[in-house]
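W.,

You were right to be curious about this one. When I first looked at the sequence I had no strong expectations either way, so I just let the prediction run and decided to look at it fresh. Below is the sequence, 196 residues in total, followed by the output.
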Amino acid sequence: DLSDNNIAETFHVSLTQFTKVNYLNLGTNRISGSIPGAIVDMTELKVLNLERNNMAGTLPPQLSQIHNLRTLNISENKFTGEVPEEWGNDWGVGGIEYLNLGDNLLDCPVRDYSEWAGVQSDFVDSYGPDGNTNCGVPDDGGDDSKGLDGVEVAIIVIAVIIFFIIGFYCWHAQSQKNVKNQVAMLSEEDVFGDDD
């Protein structure tokens, strides 16, 4: 059990060389990277907990080929794409006991994986009964706006700068025109003033 240890590493393929490990709990760390397809080599694995990390990428179809796997918790990460169809084909109804995939960035609608879990699944709580809730976007605390990314902010800043430059140029050009008009008026007054 290596959970809650503030581990900030990528998920190393070398971990899959421990083929006799039954229980791998790396939850609540800062582990990044994806789950390697070589995870299938961990044939004795019964529990895989990677919840609350910074893992990303697509879900490897090979996970369902670990026939002893009873608990899979990869919730609260940044996994994308679809729940692999192979999981349903390999596990079937109730083929795994606990299956938690919630709070990821999975494609909408999320495939209903609840029937594959014989004891407990977080599908309905995480993605709603139709798989269209909380998918595809990170949970930002309930605010529906995504905010501005760096490119959008840069465009706005550049637009504001250009607006001020154009405004200053127009103001300066108008000021120069006014000065010329005033000089011309003064020159005309001097011309007319000399005739008196």
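Here's what jumped out at me. The first helix runs from residue 85 to 91. And, maybe more interesting for your project: Residues 141-145 have pLDDT under 50 and may be disordered.

Coffee later to discuss?

I.
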